[in-house]
Design goal:
alpha+beta, Cathepsin B, Chain A, 3 domains, two-stranded antiparallel ribbon, 11 helices
Length: 426
């Protein structure tokens, strides 16, 4: 007892909490479940303190899941998916990214006013091979890029017969006119960027990093898939949205920040849900179950969320905005022209009239006299920065050479720059 009195109040609270966790049978059961969940999802924590905080969030989410699933009247179920250790505000900060406020005035947009022909009672573009596998945006707010590439992948398959997975990273890095990488964007501007760039690269050639990096300008010319334009569906018009989805996958904005959305596992999602748009997804079809109509929604949170990365969301909700605002901000790319022919494989990098480096590398001068390079070495990084000591090179997204520390930096303060410059001259 005297020992407890000598401790700071915060330490007493921690000891009491740990004692409760060790004594309470319920907490022991929760702890075992948490450990199993950690293994199932490959989670790692930096400290015991972080693990305890995640455990508390897990307990809170478990209680929320159990309370929802105990209601036998709900059309959907919640579960302990890979986001079950995040509080709602933590989840919102990491997994959204739609900037709906960037939308241009309606008068400045090309609108879709319907199509001709009959519409099937149900449709799933996955069955037609027009949908790539579910992707994961990670802790980067570029859902807009995933929604845009998904729509382009779909119309490209429909128009050309070829399904190609396209580069979200190229959009995240290079589309800077209005969109802002991991800090949010809008699908219309992504479509516009692809049109102005005369195409977009593949995911294999420009892979995803889950963070914004320096635009690889040499890859802008690798235009594998093109589009001709894009159209917006008049807001709050579910009939026109249905007609558009009947002809191709469609990008939409929704509210994805609700706790029930975070922990969704299966069934037809019916809310409750706000119409404050903060997330972008892709509608890839529609159907009905027991008289209830739904949209088939492809998300960008990996396959451990929802039904292998998909959700069935209520359609014909008798609300013009649609469930979670799904009718409010919808658009799709158009394509009639063929894609450009495949680019030839890159050749060697030319250093001088007689010297070359392998393709994908950078020439760095290793010996110069009076400004004339007499000998070259090859840096195995593409578009690298050659350091002044003629020994090292740095990648383009970490372009500052710290030769004294043999490291590459993204940025540095003035005093560090002076130190590095003196070291290089020494």
């Amino acid at each position: 007892m005297d020992f407890a009195r000598s401790l700071p109040f915060s330490a007493v609270i921690v000891i009491a909490l740990i004692s409760f966790l060790l004594i309470s049978p319920t907490s022991l059961a929760y702890s075992d479940l948490f450990e199993s969940w950690i293994k199932a999802h490959g989670k790692r924590y930096s400290s015991e303190g972080e693990k305890l905080a995640r455990f508390r969030a897990f307990q809170d989410n478990l209680a929320f899941v159990d309370a929802h699933n105990a209601d036998g009247n709900s059309s959907y179920e919640l579960g302990l998916n890979s986001f079950a250790d995040l509080l709602s505000h933590e989840f919102r900060a990491a997994r959204l990214g739609l900037s709906a406020g960037l939308a241009a005035p309606r008068a400045n947009r090309t609108m879709f006013w319907g199509s001709y022909g009959s519409i099937p009672s149900s449709l799933d573009w996955r069955n037609d091979g027009a949908v790539t596998s579910v992707k994961d945006q990670g802790s980067c707010g570029d859902c807009w890029a995933f929604s845009a590439t998904g729509a382009i992948e779909g119309i490209n398959k429909i128009a050309t017969g070829s399904l190609v997975s396209l580069s979200e990273q190229e959009l995240c890095d290079c589309d800077q006119s209005y969109n802002n990488g991991c800090n949010g964007g809008l699908m219309d501007y992504a479509f516009k960027w692809v049109i102005q760039n005369h195409g977009i690269d593949t995911e294999d050639d420009y892979p995803y990093q889950a963070k914004q990096t320096t635009c690889l300008k040499n890859k802008l010319k690798r235009r594998v898939v093109t589009i001709d334009g894009y159209k917006d569906i008049p807001p709050n018009n579910e009939k026109l949205l249905l007609q558009a989805v009947a002809q191709q996958p469609v990008s939409v904005g929704i509210c994805g920040s609700e706790r029930s959305f975070q922990l969704y596992t299966k069934g037809i999602f019916t809310g409750p849900c706000s119409t404050a748009l903060d997330h972008a997804v892709l509608i890839v079809g529609y159907g009905s179950e027991n008289g209830v109509d739904y949209w088939i929604v492809k998300n960008s949170w990996g396959k451990s969320w929802g039904m292998n990365g998909y959700m069935h969301m209520l359609r014909n909700s008798n609300d013009s905005y649609g469930m979670c605002g799904i009718n409010m901000l919808a658009s799709f790319p158009t394509k009639t022209s063929p894609n450009p022919p495949p680019a030839p494989p890159p050749g060697p990098t030319k250093c001088s009239a007689l010297t070359y480096c392998p393709a994908g590398s950078t020439c760095c001068c290793s010996w110069r006299i009076l400004g004339l390079c007499l000998s070259w070495s090859c840096c195995d990084l593409e578009n690298a920065v050659c350091c002044k000591d003629d020994r090292y090179c740095c990648p383009s997204d970490y372009p500052i050479c710290d030769t004294s520390g043999a490291q590459c930096l993204k940025m540095l303060f003035l005093k560090d720059a002076l130190h590095i410059d003196k070291a290089a001259k020494a």
